[in-house]
Amino acid sequence: QVQFVESGGGLVQPGRSLRLSCTASTSMYFMGWYRQAPGKEREVIVRKFRGGSTFYKDAVKGRFTISTDNAKNTASLQMDNLKPEDTAVYYCNGQDLNSDNESWGQGTQVPVSS
């Protein structure tokens, strides 16, 4: 099973920025992030495939940007103009390049509050 090392997260004020990072233990077919807000289901918010194609949930388009480095098995999520409704636990996610296994990191809290 793929292991992820996540960093970033923490309390941030509305309108400010935050950056999440994730390193996978092996080569990935795609990497991205899910988030789970209090009382809600976990949802995918961004995904970038090895070939470069990218998906963004409408709620984060224009504010969040994912970047990946296939050679280093890393992904970063730049989150700008954060809103209180972005408050959630953010989980790094990805699929092993050499199998169909999809895995999640342990998650990091991102509270957006003044």
Q: Helix segment count? A: 0
Helix/strand-derived class?
mainly beta
What global shape is seen? globular
Low-confidence stretches: none
Oligomer: single chain
Please write the string of helix (H) and strand (E) elements. EEEEEEEEEE
**Total strands:** 10
- Can you summarize the main beta sheet? 6 strands, antiparallel
Name the helicity range.
under 10%
Mean of pLDDT:
97
Question: How far apart are the termini?
Answer: 38 Å
Q: What does the radius of gyration come to?
A: 13 Å
Question: Which band does the percent of strand residues land in?
Answer: over 45%
Notes on the structure:
There is one protein chain. The chain has 114 residues and is mostly beta strands. The N and C termini lie far apart (38 Å). The chain is built from no helices and ten strands. A hairpin with a 4-residue loop joins strand 6 and strand 7. Helices cover 0% and strands 50% of the residues. It has strands at 4-7, 18-24, 28-36, 43-49, 54-56, 64-69, 74-79, 88-96, 102-104, 108-110.
